[in-house]
Model the fold of this input.
Amino acid sequence: MAYLPRIVDTELDQLLPGLPALAIEGAKGVGKTATAARRAETVFALDDPAVLEVVTADPGIIDTGPYPVLLDEWQRQPPIWDHVRRRVDGGAAPGSYLLTGSAIPVEAPVHSGAGRIVSIRMRPLSLAERELAEPTVSLAQMLSGTRPAIGGTSDVDLARYVDEIFASGFPGIRPLPARARRAQLDGYLTRIVERDFPEQGQAVRRPETLRSWLIAYAAATAGTASYNTLGQAAAGESGPPAKTTTIAYREVLSQLYLLDPVPGWVPGRNHFGKAGQAPKHHLVDPALAARLLGVDPGALLRGESPGPRIPRDGTLLGALFESLVTLGVRTYAQAAEARTRHLHTRDGAHEADLIIERADQKVVAIEVKLAAAPGGDSIKHLTWLKDRIGDDLLDAAVITTGQHAYRREDGIAVIPAVLLGP
Done:
């Protein structure tokens, strides 16, 4: 399968020449190994039992080069992290080590690696990486505060966006025929329960309960439902799972990078003190949410919402479209050295689906709308935010399913989802 260029490639090319050790982290199947291997001269695949045995017996073998050395699935041998850290402390040259990991190890390394090993998150393919259209609007330029010109046209319609929700951003799953893709997504979810949970030291006594909780989480996509609400929605014949059980689920799923919630934004300049801090729920890929809910493209377009009833504003399709857009925005924001948050005031009067925050706390605000043109509510929220934070709002945009990118007279950008890029 031909390699699809990734946005994280640019980050690696910028960082590797100046840093002795980089760790690429993310869920299984997002493409970490393929991306890292393109830069490695030596590869140790630690998910191969024979390789793992050799490295366990003689960790120094990784120091014989040639460099860069890739330690793939390093979490299979957690002490290797501390070995690399010590090598960095000892003066390892820039570009010496690449580590990839698809889980936070249960047996944590002695040292966090802070200041020695720099971690980069890798997610499934964004819309820009899927090459549906050439992006004409740069999030990095919007973050520059220059209010760039907004333009461009896309022929991607609503039906195609729905197809992209189901197509998946996992590079190895995406090219498959529809039925094979569904089977692979089912297998991915099954492996989480049957193999990944035990490997994280958490045996699943009742797989059906874990699956029910995952279905409830999927139904809560792009919403801020409480974890108590999710637990109630996952209730079986014997009632809802115990809180201790659902906390364990969340911890392990987070360790596996399967849960990818967007934290609430708390303004650093005290513009207003009533911002909620509850995260917005997202799975690492909206295709997994759609598969858990058993929905198909036709049902989504008809407005059907299978699965447990979780409070949400709008339709399930709108939530999954927001999750698809969020996946991309987080990738573009990371490349621009910015953080992704969301805003929801505690009284529920105002919100912004995505807040992209620079290091100086200035932001770009984004609303995501399942429509060809922005509605009044989305404009209202963005206008309110501008009134509250003034020049700290670098730019504001509504991401749509429409064809044309443009800037409104009030300065708010309107951008089809496929035309936004890094």
About this structure: The chain has 14 helices and 13 strands. The CA atoms of residues 275 and 345 lie 4 Å apart.
